[in-house]
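Chapter summary example.
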Amino acid sequence: MLTLVKNCKDWGKVTAMGRVGVLLLNLGGPDKLEDVGPFLYNLFSDPEIIRLPFRWMQKPLAWFIATRREKTSQENYKYIGGGSPLRRITEEQGAALQAKLEEMGKGANIYVGMRYWHPYTEEAIAQLTQDEIEKLVILPLYPQFSISTSGSSFRLLEQLWQEDAKLQSLEYTVIPSWYKQPAYLQAMAELITEQLNKCANPDQAHIFFSAHGVPKSYVEDAGDPYQQEIEECTKLIMQTLNRPNEYTLAYQSRVGPVEWLQPYTEDALQELGEKGIKDLVVVPISFVSEHIETLQEIDIEYREIAEEAGIENFRRAAAPNTYPVFIQALADLVIESLEKPDLKLAQVTQMKKKVRMYPQERWEWGITTSAEVWNGRIAMLGFIALIIEMLTGRGLLHAIGIL
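The structure predicted for these 403 residues follows.
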């Protein structure tokens, strides 16, 4: 179901701005094991996830990686019930947000738009257009902005707007990132406190923030503000928490041979174990819903690494999900955005002045003509090697664990 709530009976009593819609953006996840392959294909088909010099290479490579990783990913999803809970939780968040807005005297239709699985963003846009929404708030469920998350969704929306004259007449505003929102910070602090208080010595437990990583080049070369926003968010949460605990920030979910943001979660856990840390509270800082990265990667893989390193008491703060203070944060964001001048999709890129979003810019493939020629040749050789590896089942990508 794309629309979480039906039109209010009397919009005139709710708001003077006409029918209001809130579009919640998220990644999406496979509902069942059979969906894993198609979901991975959609994911790796996104140029913001894997950046290639030629568009025609994207889909063949996406198919190849998805095919090779499907069984392994299915095994991981089996550990958490055979599918991702992300859609269910996001819809529950939408329902809770709608109820909170009504409680605060505001009415809105809530729409869920997933980037790589149902309900797709395109489906949500089609529904809100059919519902004749007059004012729309675009709210990504990513507190911190990144090219590969919010940025990818914004690019898709910008394309949809360019192709649809009806959308161009719709009044809307975008919330690019919201990691400083006070109620969000308070919700995170309370969820951390809940776990700290279960430790024998709460003030001695080490707080371990684990954020989803991105390639280092996104930050250093493309100007992605993600690392800066994650670091600032971590400090703000600790200030809100106002406790003496020491803390660490690390980055998880690294794949492939390229360098990602460091320290890596697995390495940082081992270092803390070597330092004699016994009590650990892990905080999934960049996630607002439970899904594969929290339920399987943190709760199973990283727990095992931590225990092998000598950490005896491994706890994890829950993702915000429908935690009441978090839902209040989302409601406050919606109401505040309705009272401010509209921020358009095209302005988001302008506002993030250093961010070079897709279509990819010259930083990725060389500046001089000769450099671009050689990049093209190297890319062709790499693609040929990829085909050979696909046929033989042996090669570099297998050796480094991508395939």
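To summarize the output: The chain has a mean pLDDT of 86.
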